[in-house]
Amino acid sequence: SNLVSHQRTHSGEKPFSCQVCSRKFAYPSDLTRHQKIHTGEKPYACDECDRRFTRLSDLITHQRIHTGEKPYRCLECGRRFRQRGVLVKHQRCHSKENPKGSEALQSSESQVKSQFKSHEIKLEKELEGQEEEPNLILFPSP
């Protein structure tokens, strides 16, 4: 029932277990979504660049790269973002606890991450044509 399902939110009960890795979930839909990690199933494809995704929500977020849509707006400064999480992180720059200049640092970090992602996508496309296993290129995490 809906009440029993809702009560799991408060109790922390997770009766649904993954047969592959034993990870537990409160809801069967969460288990189903998780199992796609093991099967490699990615049913949602981007028409623009052929990337595939496990979840429809991830595809929708990704498509904003192509459309330029930025639906999340900072009420403090008006800046817009593609992802809600990035907006939330940005909003910290307006808090009193944040040191001056952190906005510039955050912008710089964002640019580096964006450039790295572009490079990563380009590299993936180049490697798609190779038949043998490519050499791994490791980058330090930002």
TrEMBL record:
Subcellular locations according to the entry: Nucleus
Compositionally skewed regions (Basic and acidic residues) per UniProt: 117-128
MF term (GO), any: RNA polymerase II cis-regulatory region sequence-specific DNA binding
Record-linked SMART domains: ZnF_C2H2
Biased composition (Polar residues): 104-115
4Fe-4S found in the keyword field: no
Region (Disordered): 88-142
Record key words, sorted: DNA-binding, Metal-binding, Nucleus, Repeat, Zinc, Zinc-finger
GO cellular component, one term: nucleus
Pfam families: zf-C2H2 (PF00096)
Superkingdom of the organism of origin: Eukaryota
Keyword field contains Transferase: no
Domain C2H2-type stretches: 1-15, 16-43, 44-71, 72-99
Main location: nucleus
Family per similarity comment: Belongs to the krueppel C2H2-type zinc-finger protein family.
PANTHER family: KRUEPPEL-LIKE TRANSCRIPTION FACTOR (PTHR23235)
UniProt protein name: C2H2-type domain-containing protein
Naturally occurring in which organism (per UniProt): Micrurus spixii (Amazon coral snake)
